[in-house]
Amino acid sequence: MRQAHEDTELRALVRRYVTPERRYLKLGGGVLTMPDPAYGRFARALGEDAGLVTPHEIGTLLEGGWRERRTAAWLIAVSRRTEFRERLGELLLESEVCCVGPAYCVALARFGTPRDAELLAAYLDRYLRRPDLDYDQIVVMGALVFIGLDLGEDHAARFLVPDGLWHQWLRDATHVQPTTDPATCLSLIRRLCAFADECAGPR
């Protein structure tokens, strides 16, 4: 993992894309509660940067810590840089750093193909078997359901069967509300994807 304090290239990218207006903190659920006109300014700036950032710069940001990776994933989501699909899937599955999973999920949900569903399902296959880990199981399920609804295919069905992996995880993960359902998971992803749509502007 590259560290901005000792990497001049990464440090410059952090100053350019990550820290202005503390962007890295606002990306995610926080942006949904921002008041106007700050919300509009934030969305426009993110959309502009998503169009300007180069693939090399995104790749460099994805080698940094959680702040850099979260920002990079959102730039990918807004600009729909599908060439980063496999890399995001790898990073999600590795779960090397905290606070980034939802950003990966927004990007994969916006790509919205069967391959993106496969990457999300691979995560659930691994981490629903780990009730001791409170990672991104809920938001990943939301993204998987989101893609399934868009494609008209129920990619989440095999996890949601009675006594399937989802229900086992809810039962055994004491830190999670046992009433958590896929509709709750879907709601956040839907709102975050709508924000990414706003940032991207008219197609």
What would you say this structure looks like, in words?
The chain has twelve helices and no strands. By secondary structure, it is mostly helical. It has one domain: Leucine-rich Repeat Variant (Alpha Horseshoe), CATH 1.25.10. Helix 5 packs parallel to helix 7 (101-111), helix 6 runs parallel beside helix 8 (114-127) and helix 9 (137-151) packs across helix 12.
Q: What share of residues is helical?
A: 55-70%
Q: What's the level 1 CATH class?
A: Mainly Alpha
CATH architecture call: Alpha Horseshoe
Average pLDDT works out at 93
Beta strand count = 0
Radius of gyration (Å)? 17 Å
Largest sheet: none
Enumerate the spans where pLDDT stays under 50 for 5 or more consecutive residues.
none
Morphology = globular
In whole angstroms, the N-to-C terminal distance is 35 Å
List the helices and strands and how they pair.
Elements: H1 8-18, H2 23-26, H3 38-52, H4 55-61, H5 66-79, H6 85-94, H7 101-111, H8 114-127, H9 137-151, H10 157-160, H11 165-172, H12 182-200
Helix pairs in contact: 3-5, 3-12, 5-7, 5-12, 6-7, 6-8, 7-8, 7-9, 7-12, 8-9, 9-12
